């Protein structure tokens, strides 16, 4: 399987160069299909030889780790962490657009993982994260105000945010967050007895069977959109939701 997929990437990357890197990476990411495998580790050079061969010392080139500009203060560029290189291996996620996890190696000897997403406009995600930052600042100000007034009300900063960096309208990178699980994983973990788990698996399988059988995820969604009405999808979704016990939250 790896050899088959790697050949597709290598063939597509024959003409890649520095000026074409973003465009080629976008096209390659959109072509990935791993026949249902949840995660496949590959070599970075199979996607982008330029990044795989990047060495700040050898090339005498400075690139910053993304996400160091907050927008709320004057940036101290001289203190920004630069990229020394990239880890040789990547991981491909199993979601519809097959985003890829890459790891940047900082000159401070730390690793900075990011998720590369193609085929989606993540500018709205960036705005939402900026809203979280604003809300945290409001909470922090409210805390200080109540402390000065000696009142009993206290707001807590509860919103954790991550860096979202759009590169184009259909390509961007997102800060990788460790030790989290998907909604599917959360539901499986919450259904902590065999009867509930078996029931959920049955419903999940019926959800998959609801879609048309096609060779790729994109074809599945397209065929379903042509044959199923909005009411069909809404009713099926509601039936699935009703099968999940309310007390798992």
Question: What does this molecule look like?
Answer:
- The chain has 249 residues and is α+β, with helices and mostly antiparallel strands.
- The chain folds into two domains: 2-122 and 162-175, Phosphatidylinositol 3-kinase Catalytic Subunit, Chain A, domain 4, CATH 3.30.1010; 183-248, no CATH class.
- It has helices at 2-12, 21-31, 49-52, 56-59, 123-149, 183-190, 194-210, 217-227, 230-242; strands at 40-43, 83-86, 89-92, 100-106, 111-118, 164-168, 171-175.
- A hairpin with a 4-residue loop joins strand 4 and strand 5.
- The chain is globular.
- Mean pLDDT is 76; it is low at 33-39.
Give the terminus-to-terminus CA distance: 39 Å
Overall body shape:
globular
CATH architecture label of the largest domain: 2-Layer Sandwich
Q: Sheet with the most strands?
A: 7 strands, antiparallel
User: Approximately how much beta-strand content do the residues carry?
Assistant: 5-15%
The percent range for helix content is 40-55%
Number of helices: 9
Mean pLDDT score, rounded? 76
CATH topology of the largest domain: Phosphatidylinositol 3-kinase Catalytic Subunit, Chain A, domain 4
- Compute the number of structural domains: 2
User: SSE order in H/E notation?
Assistant: HHEHHEEEEHEEHHHH
Task: Point out poorly predicted stretches.
Answer: 33-39
Radius of gyration: 22 Å
| CATH top level class name of the largest domain | Alpha Beta
Structural class by secondary-structure content:
alpha+beta
Number of strands: 7
Keywords: Kinase, Membrane, Transferase, Transmembrane, Transmembrane helix
GO molecular function: protein serine/threonine kinase activity
Domain PI3K/PI4K catalytic: 86-249
Organism: Sitophilus oryzae (Rice weevil)
């Amino acid at each position: 399987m790896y050899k088959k997929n790697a050949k597709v990437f290598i063939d597509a990357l024959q003409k890649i160069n520095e000026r074409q890197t973003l465009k080629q990476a976008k096209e390659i990411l959109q072509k990935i299909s791993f026949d249902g495998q949840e995660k496949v580790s590959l070599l970075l050079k199979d996607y982008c030889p330029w990044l795989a061969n990047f060495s700040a010392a050898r090339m005498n080139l400075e690139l910053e780790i993304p996400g160091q500009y907050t927008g709320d203060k004057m940036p101290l560029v001289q203190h920004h962490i630069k990229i020394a290189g990239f880890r040789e291996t990547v991981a491909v996620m199993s979601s519809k657009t097959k985003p890829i996890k890459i790891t940047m190696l900082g000159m401070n000897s730390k690793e900075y993982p990011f998720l590369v997403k193609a085929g989606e406009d993540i500018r709205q995600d960036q705005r939402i994260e900026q809203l979280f930052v604003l809300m945290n600042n409001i909470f922090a100000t409210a805390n200080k105000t109540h402390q000065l007034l000696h009142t009993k009300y206290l707001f807590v900063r509860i919103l954790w945010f991550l860096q979202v960096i759009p590169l184009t309208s259909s390509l961007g990178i997102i800060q990788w967050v460790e030790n989290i699980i998907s909604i599917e994983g959360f539901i499986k973990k919450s259904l902590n007895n065999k009867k509930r788990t078996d029931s959920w698996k049955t419903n999940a399988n019926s959800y998959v069977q609801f879609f048309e059988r096609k060779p790729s995820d994109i074809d599945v969604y397209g065929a379903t959109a042509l044959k199923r009405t909005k009411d069909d999808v809404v009713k099926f979704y509601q039936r699935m939701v009703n099968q999940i016990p309310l007390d798992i939250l």
